[in-house]
Write a structure and sequence with these properties.
16% strand, 36% helix, single chain
Length: 69
Amino acid sequence: MQYIPQKNLKKFREENKPEFCPLLSCVTKDWVVDHCHSGGTIRGVVSSEGNVFLGKIENAHKRLSKGAK
């Protein structure tokens, strides 16, 4: 994982966009830089749809695991 300043995100996204989304295995023109919300570190470049899907999974996990041991 790495930290990238805001001003360098566009360049990072262009240089690191994959052939297809590693989360959804789809081809897209709408790439985003995925990052950890708690630490701000970059996890990679994924499709916009994949990023939304990952966020929903992470939020559901947080919500459903409250109080779990």
